[in-house]
Specification:
mainly beta, 5 strands, 13% helix, elongated
Length: 120
């Protein structure tokens, strides 16, 4: 019995310290131009192809999935004002590589357009 308790007590710190902590490293760079964009879920709001809800930006009528930050890093995507239910204006920095927007700065502003759901 003592061996099992000791084993559990040794296992808990290993599991606890093994967790990766995500820190959003998006920083404004004054040397790079800001880009006005719209941000939302690529599948739910921009009708893009994909397997799951992911953050996307629309810049000058071109749509790109975002690399560098996730959809839930900016709040619950499925809440009433989340990215799966609303298109938000955003100010971004980054560049397009392989048809994905590699983001280095992201700031979503006010609610722009809401998707209305019909319930039967």
């Amino acid at each position: 019995m003592k061996k099992k308790i000791l084993l559990v007590l040794l296992f808990i710190p290993i599991v606890s310290f093994g967790q990766e902590i995500f820190r959003n490293n998006l920083k404004f760079n004054p040397k790079i131009n800001l880009i006005k964009a719209e941000a939302a879920c690529g599948i739910c709001m921009f009708n893009m192809e994909g397997k799951e809800c992911e953050l996307a930006v629309r810049i000058n009528d071109s749509k790109y999935y975002v690399v560098g930050t996730g959809i839930d890093d900016h709040g619950d995507a499925h809440s009433e004002k989340g990215f799966c239910h609303a298109i938000r204006k955003a100010t971004v920095q980054g560049k397009v590589i392989d048809n994905k927007f590699h983001i280095t700065y992201f700031k979503a502003t006010n609610l722009h357009q809401k998707k209305f759901l019909e319930f039967e």
